[in-house]
Amino acid sequence: MTLLSVENLTVKFHTRNGVTTAVDQVSFSVERGEILGIVGESGSGKSVSCYSLLGLVPMPPGKIESGRVMFDGKELLSMSEDELRELRGDDVAMIFQDPMTCLNPFLTIGEQLIEPLIYHRNYTRQQARERAIELMQETGIQQAETRFDAYPHEFSGGMRQRVMIAMALITEPKLLIADEPTTALDVTIQAQILELVAELQKERNLGVIFISHDLAVVRDLADNVMVMKEGKVVERNATAQLFANPTHPYTQQLLNAVPNGAKAYADLSQDHALLKVEALTTSFLDRNSGQRIKAVDAVSFDIKRNEILGLVGESGSGKSTIGRSILKLVNADSGKVIFDDQELLALNRKAMLPYRKRIQMIFQDPYASLNPRMTVFDALAEPMLYHGVANKQTVESQVLDLMDDVGLARKAVKKYPHEFSGGQRQRIAIGRAIATKPELIIADEPVSALDVTIQKQILALIFQLVEKHNLSMLFVSHDLSVVRSLCDRVMVIQHGKLLELAETETLWQSPKNDYTRKLLAAASGM
Amino acid sequence: MLRYIGLRLLQAIPVLFAVITATFFLIRQAPGGPFDAEKPVIPAVKRALEAKYNLDLPMWQQYLHYLGDLFKGDMGPSFKYPGWAVHDLILSGLPATAELALYALLVALLIGVAAGVSAALKPNTARDYVPMSLAMLGICMPTFLLGPLLVLIFGFWLQWLPISGWGDLPGDKILPSLTLGAAYAAYVARLTRGGMLEVMSQDYIRTARAKGLPERVVIVKHALRGGLIPVVAFLGPAFAGLLAGSFVVETIFQIPGLGRFYVQAAFNRDYTMILGTTIFLSTLIIVFNLISDLLATWMNPKLRNQLSTKAGGNT
Question: Average pLDDT for residues B290-295, to the nearest whole number?
């Protein structure tokens, strides 16, 4: 018998701004022991199509307009709220994207783990505790006995996701819905979690719906893949066939959007570097222990003119701190930063000003880094006027040129940031960065908050602008595939130390360091 | 943590000192003195009285005398109630006022939290607008209006409750507690609503629902802990405010509390009494703020840890 079958499901949202169709005539099914991957960009309806079955979409504004959903022989859509609640966390369990925010910070891990057993299975606390500790061990949480009474903030991101998985599986559910469970994790942790999910799924003969925006993640894991766009299923096939012969143009576009291959090199034989960093060390005071922790530890490298240097590491490795230390947004302890023959670290605020014009920064989150009360025009004009790149007469035409450069419509110049999509906002942020005609740009994870097709467009834009304006760039990222397609050379750092610095293809073909090998394996394994 | 408490108490000393000094000199600037009455006292008697209480000394000497006595734990005699020491008067009024403030706080919490949670669960519906409008009304309505209004309704028209007294008739503590608690109930309701709205939109509430927990458990166990932190942080200042602000209610309902001493002392220029009650209330405000800060910190596991590591490392 089919575990879950969904037929012609349509979900609409009735809001003040009209009715939107989030899920449009969607049908799919999952057998026991099958992993179904649902792939699509944010807003494609992939999460809503699963949440709505279980009564997890707030209604109103949501409304299930039509459909028939059978789970384990029972019709779901006619169930009462209480019957659905009985099903959730018992026969159907879920894990979510961000384990940082999905666990209650006010309750211990143990308390949260045992809840499903207590409310669905009438276990005593002692019985539930024993079962929870067994499952913590099974999902790879060390010292489960003592960790049971710890709070979420005492766990790392990867460990928290293991807790989420243990919590989901504690009632031995028949169906697991995993909504982007690895998106918020570092690449090596991602690989571990995916492995764990695959392993547990086989042992328990679980049906799994694996929701992701990332085709690469689904490829190794899923038996079947369904691609969604704007609430509709555009293609559904066995995984191997789908990747071999994508029939729908959107699927093809998604597949092409996965960054792959390398770019032409800049001239690296030039002996005069634009930026030279020597033994840069930056430390922070850890409030808990009272000790200084070295975020960046004696790191040296250089960036040639017109070069894009990739800087790769996991979160907490100190990669963002390097960028910020160069711009003196944080104070370095020691070392030298030599930009165009001038040492920067010793400069005072005033002497630093001309260099702020020549070195600009792009941040990860285009939502947070643009002032919501400034129009695009103001945001772009401000640095131009301040640094004297433009004057009152020329500023308007220069801003419009910049809009052309970053691929935004000229008439959008009077709009505010909230009126743009994430990708468009990042274009504005890039425009702001190149407005002062800088020579060096430090880009801190500029595409990691974006959907994969938008990522590709923004990367193309960055590449094009680097060529056009003869820029150099330090490109900070945790994503190796992005770095490969863009950078001339790549440096890998871990715990604040430089492990390896090599030309991109050399690093890919023959990595010298174990950690680099692990990173590469984790990235290509997905 | 002991170190943290000690540090906060040390910080309180200059604050108290400033309060004492400012009160001491300000009250002396007010025209008249403790022995000026409608019926004038014979100048010789007045001089003798002033000499007895050191009021004939230069101001700075009086100030030093007072500080010296205070340091020994003596707040001095009351000028208006002969034979009474200030601290005896404060202690005689404190039980009624403290009890009233406590009940008012309970009223504020019960009504405020219930209204706030109810509003946060159905935001922007009648269940939100009605209690929140009432809360706004509660904040706007002064106690000297609400008190007589409640007396009129429940005391005279419905004849359900006694209209004055404290502990004399059954139920005579209800109306004063309601009157004093109403405004604070309104603040608590608004704080609860804000806190709960914030928490209910968190991802971990979705997790709790995905686990199939009954809605009651989702709200009480998962949401309320985080949602009430702003309320807990407000409790200290609120309790101190209730103690200090009980005067109007005590007057309306004829309650033998602290408030009447405080206000009458100001009218009577009873210098030591004013200083004594001010010092007493300032100390309470400082202590209750500290307690509610500690409580709010302790409620957050992340911060609780920091408290104990600090204590472990330094005490």
Answer: 88
